[in-house]
Amino acid sequence: MAQEIISSNVKAAYDEFYQQHDEAWRMLGAGFKAQHIITVCQGHTFTKVLEVGAGDGSILQYLAEQDFAPQYDAVEISESGVEHIKKRNIKNLQSVQVFDGYHLPFEDNSFDLIILSHVLEHVEHERLLLRELKRVASHLVIEVPRDYKAGVDSRIQHFLAYGHINVYTPTSLRYLLRTEGLEVMKDLTSMIEPEVTRFNTYINQKKPKSAITDLKIKLEYGLKSLLSRLGGKKTAEQMANAYTVLCRTTGQQADIF
Questions:
Q1: 15 and 78 Cβ atoms separated by less than 8 Å
Q2: N or C: which end of the chain has fewer CB within 10 A?
Q3: CA distance linking residue 217 with residue 47, whole number of Å
Q4: Which of 165, 166, 167, 169 is nearest to 189 (CA)?
């Protein structure tokens, strides 16, 4: 997997991505993402954990603060992201390196667990990356946003603004994983919490604070939560904003022509 797999313009864009850094917003989202990881890994113990596409290190910081594992490593394609991770002084972080997006600078079976949180939607060659992850660890935690909805093709520019070149449903992610020899052990659907929606509305979008807006945010979240509980797994997956899985390698892979 040569470095040329990732184009120079994409690499440059991500190198600059964390230069304009919004710590409060990233830490808010990272707290929930870290909790999703802890939830799907409940009952399992992992000693050596690698986060691939670690961004600014905010998820690893939360995990380290909760003693999720005794050892962490991180790789990230963004040089500005790597610099932010180094500045955090994350407990038990052994190494943080810039990588080319596809080739991990580690030997086979170097880790117990790899974390890939909100990365796969940005990856041009998903299957190449998954095969490299399987080489380095037997267990993976993957979280993706559930971007797919009817008419998603009419919102391409919206998703490209976030760098999302792939859109997923829980079903489509499971299909991808199973055809790459990965078995889903535990999964979790989640919705954007009201706290995150309020921050995005009032801080990011700079809309005026309003009791009516607060009430709408609370009611929408409550209604979707109720429908998810009453409708079962299928409805919960339709209502979800993100999907998290713990999976392991099976040693089998579908023939792809």
A1: yes
A2: C
A3: 39
A4: 169
SS3 227: helix
* Cβ contact 96:54 at 8 Å: yes
Pairing of strands 137-145, 111-117: parallel
Query: How many structural domains is the chain composed of?
Result: 1
Structure tokens at 242: 């993100």
Residue 209 DSSP label: P
Structure tokens at 64: 């380290």
Query: Range of 165's domain?
Result: 3-190+242-249
The model's pTM: 0.88
The Cα 213–Cα 215 span in angstroms is 5
Over residues 151-182, the pLDDT tens digits come to: 887 888 887 888 889 999 999 999 999 999 99
Instruction: Name the residue type at position 20.
Output: Q
C-alpha 30/C-alpha 246 separation (Å) is: 18
Confirm whether 176 is domain-assigned. Answer: yes
Q: What single-letter amino acid sits at 223? A: L
Asked if 241 and 143 touch (Cβ cutoff 8 Å), the reply is no
